[in-house]
Amino acid sequence: MGYKTIQVKTEGRVGVITLDRPEALNALCDALTTELADALAKFESDGEIGCVVLTGSKKAFAAGADIKELQSQDFVSLYMDDPFEKTWESVARFRKPIIAAVSGYALGGGCEIAMMCDFIIASETAKFGQPEINLGVMPGAGGTQRLPRAISKAKAMDLCLTGRMMDAKEAERAGLVSRIVPADDLLSAAMDAAETIASKSLPIAMMTKEAINRSFELGLSEGVRWERRVFQSQFATEDQSEGMAAFAEKRAAHFKHK
Ligand code: CAA
């Protein structure tokens, strides 16, 4: 598939997807989210990829769903076609680690797609918000659900009800972003983190991601019980034997991703 709205490349074991609709501040039109889902499916099935970085431009990670496309939708067309289920959720369903590297605007669907990633590294210029209320709607791709889980109820209510933006510092204080870096260092910081993750055992990294995501679905005792069973199961992997042998032998581990 030749992509028109995203750029895709690989560097070692890291896949990089750059949203690339500068004329619309990377607004998430159908073509873009279809291409994004396609690129993610390819990275998921590529055994050489251990982590993905999703990024945008300096000015915008993504300014939200494409309002000009949404404008002509009605309830039945949106319900029947359900683009959020069909393509957008491919980010949330992606099983390998994925980092959002956010510079500039991450608004509406842009903020929601960033939150579907495992963590967000933000540049000092990043601005987050759920301004859908200004358009006479509310967030529709997880904003009302993922935002209060990522930050406090108070801040989620504040952002979704007023439609205001939050800068990188406020987002880091609130727990939405894991770290802030200078704008010029954003991609290299995200790549460093992605390379580090990709150097670990892929199945173990995937199970770790799955376990943390499970914590949002399960009660504490069920979650801990489930974690323990997965931990025990990891002793059936070659990478557990290698990782612990490497520690005992005072050498670097060479994971085989199995
Ligand atoms: N959809 C479609 N086009 C968009 C867009 C969007 N979400 N955001 C920006 N654009 C377009 C603008 O229409 C403009 O195009 P033209 O030059 O053809 O007019 C171009 O991108 C540049 O935008 P601006 O001129 O507005 O740039 P700015 O620097 O003055 O402002 C901004 C930047 C504050 C981000 C402003 O563009 C803006 O408010 N955008 C909309 C943000 C928004 O409401 N997002 C939520 C969308 S709904 C949603 O996401 C639903 C959901 O939950 C899934």
TrEMBL record:
SUPFAM superfamilies: ClpP/crotonase (SSF52096). It comes from Hyphobacterium lacteum. Belongs to the enoyl-CoA hydratase/isomerase family. InterPro entries: ClpP/crotonase-like_dom_sf, Enoyl-CoA_hyd/isom_CS, Enoyl-CoA_hydra/iso, Enoyl-CoA_hydra_C. Pfam families: ECH_1 (PF00378). It is an enzyme of class 4 (lyase). Its EC number is 4.2.1.17. PROSITE patterns: ENOYL_COA_HYDRATASE. Transmembrane segments: none annotated. Keywords: Isomerase, Lyase. This is Enoyl-CoA hydratase. GO terms for molecular function: enoyl-CoA hydratase activity; isomerase activity. CDD domains: crotonase-like (cd06558). PANTHER family: ENOYL-COA HYDRATASE, MITOCHONDRIAL, ENOYL-COA HYDRATASE-RELATED.
